[in-house]
Amino acid sequence: MTHTFYIAMSYGIAALISLCLITWVWLDGRARAKELAELEASGIRRRSAPKPEGKEA
């Protein structure tokens, strides 16, 4: 194994792992956004969301 091959493989593996992590975070974000949309459509609101007009706690 040459030094150049070792360096190239290290960069390649690091790039592959970084790409996998970025893809995982992006897909997980889409899934969480979909879950939030489903919850809000069913009437469940986030505590930080403004209260609808006419409803006070």
TrEMBL record:
TM helices/strands, residue ranges: 6-27
Q: How does it sit in the membrane?
A: Single-pass membrane protein
Broad class of where this protein is predominantly found: membrane
Localization recorded for this chain is: Cell inner membrane
For this UniProt record, the keywords arranged alphabetically read as follows: Cell inner membrane, Cell membrane, Cytochrome c-type biogenesis, Membrane, Transmembrane, Transmembrane helix, Transport
Read off the Pfam families from this record. CcmD
What InterPro entries does the entry give?
Haem_export_protD_CcmD
Origin superkingdom = Bacteria
Q: Report the sequence similarity comment from the record.
A: Belongs to the CcmD/CycX/HelD family.
Function as written in the Swiss-Prot or TrEMBL entry: Required for the export of heme to the periplasm for the biogenesis of c-type cytochromes.
Q: What is this protein called?
A: Heme exporter protein D
The beginning of the lineage is: Bacteria, Pseudomonadati, Pseudomonadota, Alphaproteobacteria, Hyphomicrobiales
